[in-house]
Design goal:
Methyltransferase, single chain, 330 residues, 25% helix, 3 domains, GMP Synthetase, Chain A, domain 3, 10 helices, Alpha-Beta Plaits
Length: 330
């Protein structure tokens, strides 16, 4: 059957396959084919492929064999379990220990590439927004996660990380232009900082969690951008004065309380700066509170233009996680 495929020379095959897999663009219903000395990798979204592979890609329609049906956890259980993938770990949220054990066993027996199964044992808590985990399979809570060509090592018991925001992080990273100076006020292990640096930006990432900053430095090294990343373990309100008027782009991904840090964001902003402000608000007015807070902090020193009002995801009943892309011009 003819399906959309990326056609690539064999020597570039593994790198191309890995980049497409990280972006979840490989069509798992079909096998990768070899014909005429070239590889044909089946894909789900030809338009998105060009962004992931920086436009240097040949997309063709080609006949490839269908993949044989894989065994899923649902095939082994009497129900369809809910789980989240993070690298080779599967994350579940089950209060019943017997049900949690059954799901873990099914995940391991299925064809999922999962070696670790972790069960959420608490809510996100504390200033560093971490949670407790029960290890149902595997050795520990450290995982390697890949998204859009970047690799992140992290320990879920020590740092906050959400794989669900991969598409949002890529949306923001695509806006970068060369030689920008980017500042992430709550950087974590680097899911914004690292792709920014890979696009050529000079980056500063600050986080109050010392372990997250250790992982940020390691992830910058893993991705070959350590020379463009400065990682600082501190409260960003203490750091901002050292980078006054510095930033061309600022990320504020602390949606429950980012408004408390807007004064520092204004300190960091250069003459022409893009601010990515994340918020969680009621669906009746998801963007208004954030916009009003930004204007109160930045005007009249800056002209404030809201360029994008973007809904990231549903957070809770009647509550939305949103992002405001705002241009500040002095």
């Amino acid at each position: 059957m003819d399906v959309p495929c990326v056609r690539v020379e064999p020597e570039a095959g593994e790198a191309t396959r890995a980049a497409l897999a990280d972006a979840d663009l490989i069509d798992d219903a079909y096998e990768i084919a070899v014909e005429g000395g070239r590889l044909y990798i089946p894909i789900t979204d030809p338009a998105a492929v060009r962004d992931v592979l920086d436009g240097d890609v040949e997309v063709v329609s080609h006949a490839v064999p269908e993949r044989q049906q894989q065994t899923t956890p649902a095939d082994l259980l009497a129900f369809d379990p809910t789980y989240e993938r993070l690298g080779e770990a599967a994350l579940i949220d089950e209060d019943d220990p017997d049900r949690a054990r059954a799901i873990a066993d099914a995940i391991l027996e299925s064809d999922l590439p999962a070696e670790t199964v972790l069960n959420k044992a608490s809510k996100v808590k504390g200033e560093t927004r971490v949670r407790d985990w029960e290890v149902l399979a595997g050795e520990n809570t450290e995982v390697v996660h890949r998204e859009y060509g970047c690799e992140f090592l992290l320990d879920l018991a020590d740092v906050y990380f959400s794989p669900r925001l991969a598409t949002e992080r890529h949306r923001v990273a695509e806006q970068l232009e060369g030689n920008e100076r980017a500042f992430d006020m709550f950087a974590g292990v680097g899911p914004f900082v690292v792709p920014f640096a890979k696009r050529g930006a000079e980056c500063v990432g600050v986080d109050i969690n010392a372990t997250a900053i250790d992982y940020l430095r390691e992830n910058a090294r893993r991705n070959g951008v350590a020379d463009r990343v400065t990682a600082i373990n501190d409260d960003v309100r203490e750091v901002a004065v050292d980078y006054e008027d510095w930033a061309d782009r600022i990320v504020m991904n602390l949606p429950h309380s980012a408004d408390a840090f807007l004064e520092s964001a204004v300190t960091l902003a250069g003459d022409d700066c893009t601010l990515h402000y994340y918020d969680i608000q009621h669906e009746d007015d998801p963007f208004g509170p954030g916009e009003r807070a930004i204007r109160a902090a930045a005007e009249p020193d800056y002209e404030v233009t809201v360029e994008t009002r973007h809904t990231v995801r549903s957070y809770a009943p009647h509550e939305l996680n949103v992002c405001l892309d705002v241009r500040l011009e002095r």
